[in-house]
Structures are given as structure tokens and as C-alpha cells.
Target: Putative Vanillate O-demethylase oxygenase
Amino acid sequence: MTTLVRNAWYVAAWSREVDDELRRFTILGDHILLYRRKDGTVAALEDRCPHRLLPLSKGKRIGDAVQCGYHGLTFGSDGKCTRVPGQDKIPPSAYVESYPIEERHGIVWIWMGERHRADPDAIFDLPQFTDPGWHAHHGDALHLKSNYLNVAENLVDPAHVSFVHPTTLGNSASENVPVHVSTEGETITAWRWIRDAEPIGFFKAFGGFEGNVDRWHYYHLHLPSIAVIDFGSADAADQIAEDDRDSGNRVLALHFMTPVDEGYTIDRWMHLRNTAVDTEEASDKIDAMFRIAFAEDKAILEAVHAEEQRPMKRRPIRIAIDRGPMVYRKRINDLLETERTLDASAETNASFVYHD
Model:
């Protein structure tokens, strides 16, 4: 049974990944053709000709249309067939699916589910994207041989950083600090503060902290697969309040997880920061540290996924830190159950009279 939620906006690509060329991307197991029209907007089509099934990405562009490289059937950027060489009549079934696309903040978003449910207002956003006091920087695309659920769970889990990232994003000072979890509202949040402790490697290199700091980790998980990690440090002598994080050295690490299929996820990551907003030198330094840390995550997650494919003699256990991931799994299951059925309950049926 699938774990892939279709009625959601996913990151199809960074804007820089899409140009005039015909390029194939795979999302939720579907092959998608992305390219830019002459006006600069992005077209997204099913990457399979309905005739002999050759991928359209192996064809060529004719203006904003795409010509199949096998027998020349041509499709507009809306997916409708405009030409069948050798005949005048175009069969009704000669079309390819097209997908709703929105492009914002250097990110190409795609809707993979029922078209009538695609609400652009539901696309993830943050005020810091356009706040002049913050700097936005796009990072890489991390390819993981792992189901996206495990990747997402890792990103609502502050406890793992002490052990997986001891020289970059964590250290031993946080090992026994309690993790707080809130599941109220649509976002699952886990967080903790580590007071008057040695700074982590990240903020020794970026921030220049030498003495003890107060530092925080807030992990926000937006269903189905977007994570925001709000982390930072401030001099311990300042004793900043929890709602005064902007006065410290603060970074928002964003993870946009796109399931390629059940066993493969692309995590496109970027960050927003409230310091060094006028220099890309800081961006390069942060990217280098993130690449080390995310490679550490990759090794763990791919090893976990490989073990999940092997026969199980007993069920895995859950411990206290797993509250957030457990709620996340339940909510994903609820979304999937909704997609498996058609809600016709609004239809009038005189056989049932409800009193609740």
C-alpha cells in the first residue's frame, strides 16, 4: 500500500534546474517533463507519449509545443495534441496529463493530485523570504535511498543531533536535555533549549562564539514533507528569552522533501539567516557545514531503509522521543485514507437521519 500523498504541493525543482531544455523529473513515481515556455513560465507534462510511450523528453520543442521523437505527435504545453502526422483527425485519447505549477522564491512547485484541489494559497511560505533583515540562500538537492517518511521523521527529531552530528549541529551537552513536543494545529513541532553550554561546531565557525552560549532547536514539520529547523545561539550572558531568538544568531534551515518513489527521496535544502545578510561568503561557509551534516544523515537514513526491506523478527520499539514521529505517521495515514475513498456523504439520502 502506498505511503505517497498526492493532494499536496511538492517542490519539483529549484528554478535554476528548469530551462528551455526538455528535462525529466520523477515525482511520486510519475515521470514529469519540465521546461520553460517562451514567456519564462514553467510547463509540466506527463513524460510519455500516448502512442508508443516514448518519453516526450526524448523529443524536441516546436515553439512551446513538444514533438514526440518517435512518430511526431505534437502536444501543446497544456497537454493537448495539436498534430498527428499522416492524418487530420486527432483522437480524443491523444493527450498527456498536465500539472498545475507555481513558481516562487526560486522554487518550482507542482500539484500531483486532483486538479480541482490545487489551491496556490496553500503553498508553503515564510515572511523571512521577503524580509530585508534576512538573507535567503538555496543549497543543494540531497538524494536519499530512503522512504520520505523516515527522512521527515528525522527532521522533527532534535534528539538525534547529539549523536549523529557531534561536530557540526550538536554536541554532548544536549544529550539529556528534555525535548518538548506540540501537536496542536497543522504543524508538528519539537524543540529544546540548551542553556549555558559550549557552542556547537556550526556556531563556532559561523558566529564566532568562543564562550558558552544559550542555543535552541525548533523543528517544525509541515505535512506531508516540508521541515523548518529554527536553530541558533546567543551569548549565555545575555540570557535571552525563548521568544527573543531574533536577537541571537538565528538560522532557518528549510527542507523540501520530494518523494521520487517509495524508496527514494530528494531533499532540496536551503537556509534563511538574520546575520551576514550582505555577503555570499557566509552562504558558502554554511553550505559546506550543511553538506557534512546532511551526509551524516544520509548514511543513517539509507542504512535504516535497507534494514526495513529485510524480514523482521519483531516489531521496532518506540521511546519517549518518538511522540512527534508517531503523530506524523498517523496524520499521513489519515491523508492517505482520505485519498483512497470518494466522499459522497454530502449526497441526500432519506434512509439516514443524523442527530449529532
